[in-house]
Give the backbone structure.
Amino acid sequence: MRYYSLILNTNKEEIKENARVNLREYRYDPVYVAVNNYMDKNMKNHMTFCVYREGENVVFSTFSFDEKYEQFNDVYDYLIGMLNETFQIRKIAEKPEEITMYQFMEYISEAKRREYIYNLNGLLKSSKLWLYDYYKNAAEFYFHFEEKIVSVKNKKKTWLFDECFKK
């Protein structure tokens, strides 16, 4: 799984005015609940999207996808196209930034705390956060678990081998 943060140049008033769907069908108030519900119901498999906080004329969101099935450029284009078609959100404040599973979980927790999410279990399952909870709540492991973002260079390697094992 890959996790990204995304900052959109919009606010809730613009979303209310420009939405091409009836937001009441997706739990209208607050508006971000409708956005999250719509995206949850209409996204492709192996992808998730969530708005978790509002700033001054910006909206903070996060998304994830399974790199076994999708590539970043395809997911990003699909997501931006969907936001543009449905909510007419055309401006992105910053390029998406890759984040860790822990950061993604924190953003989802913030959205839950602000009551922007109603289908939390589906989002956790789709983004494979149940795995994080497994490691977080497990008893002592016989190994050290550390979370890191794998670089593109290391991802392309098909074989990882430490020379120390030869001895």
